[in-house]
Amino acid sequence: MSKRVDEKHMIETAARVANWGRWGKDDEIGTLNFVSNSQVKAGARLVINGDVFPLGMNMDQNGPQRGYEGRVNPLHMMTWTGTDVVTGVQSRSLKRPHEGTWYGAGFSDDYITMPIQCATHWDALGHVFYQDIEQKKFYMYNGFDPINVNSAEGCSISGIEKYYDKMAGRGVLLDVARYKNVPFMQPGEGITCEDLDNCAKSQGVEIRTGDFILVRTGDSDRRIREKQWGTYCGSDAPGLEFETIIWLHDNEVAAVATDTWGCEVRPNNSDMFHQPWHQLCIPIAGLPMGENFRLDALADACAADKRYDFFFVAPPLLITGGTGSPLNPYAIR
Questions:
Q1: pLDDT tens digit string along 3-13?
Q2: What is the model's pLDDT at position 85?
Q3: N or C: lower Cβ tally within 10 Å for the chain?
Q4: For residue 222, what are the CA distances in angstroms to 170, 230, 240, 243, 267?
């Protein structure tokens, strides 16, 4: 059982995993500094069959969001359609010279309105702030002032665009659900440091500096199969226990992602903190995190040939000042 996360434990663990100043006082990408050209080349060498596993959720009205923290599923709206073309509406509206055509052709167009964190996504290091309990002051990663995130510019420091050339390298799947011999883990079921070590050992895979770690609980794909998200977003979930932030820090992981809505276990072992692991992962350790990944198909392939590392590619959209980015990550084997 994870140790109770009270003020003392939070402060001690924050000091243990802090990466402020490690890569200079102006650093905005945290543990992505571990990703070098050699790590990217090592990842690329893992491509043997050329099989591509997309790890992202569809961005549509069937997604996981139910209004938690104001988040909804993507709203997809058409501005021009095929109907507009064949009825001549497009041509007349755009004052084109030929009835029903757009210079001999027609077109469709659309747009999407969506919270950045509504489906599969990365969180930027400007997404979560840490409150120094003793000073009663909030901080961003690397000690930056949260005032650098504002309505005019978004994240003027540590926005998602700062990840632009770092999200590729060696990926490692830790299939904790399969290690525990269950099809999926239950809400409230935590993953400990010992679980991560033993899972890696059982799979015969070594964790290396600069790895992208994907942790499978089976949660998101189960919900998709059942066509029922229930309390998936914002409520109880399987996930990482608080102390795993130390494991991730000590193993010099570049980024971590899970197939759950918030990476960490809910409910957690704290009466004080809603998401204590979050509070250290992003603003203290500077560790990018991904949520709502789909990992079941990749897990089946890894289990079939006993290869749990692969070339991982997951660039964000270059949303200047964004607190995160939607994406469709690839595991290429």
A1: 888 999 999 99
A2: 87
A3: N
A4: 26, 11, 18, 26, 19
* Alpha-carbon span 120 to 102, nearest angstrom: 37
Residues 6+ apart with CB under 8 A from 328: 54, 55, 56, 120
The DSSP element (H or E) to which 290 belongs, if any, is strand 289-291
The token pair that represents 263 in the structure block? 């990476």
Q: Distance between CA atoms of 138 and 59, rounded to whole angstroms?
A: 33
Tens of pLDDT, residues 96-123: 655 555 566 788 999 999 999 999 999 9
In this structure, the chain runs to a length of 333
101 burial level (CB within 10 Å; 0-12, 13-18, 19+): middle
May I ask the CATH architecture of the domain 7-65+116-332? Answer: 3-Layer(bba) Sandwich (3.50)
pTM above 0.90, yes or no: yes
Domain ranges of the chain: 7-65+116-332, 75-113
Category of 154 on φ-ψ map: left (φ > 0), alpha (ψ -120 to 50) or beta:
left
- Beta strand 255-258 pairing with 137-139: unpaired
Angstrom distance (rounded) from CA 274 to CA 296 = 28
User: What are the structure tokens assigned to 182, written together?
Assistant: 């269950």
The whole-angstrom separation of Cα 309 and Cα 305 is 11
Given a contact cutoff of 8 angstroms between Cβ atoms, the answer to whether 332 and 52 are in contact is: yes
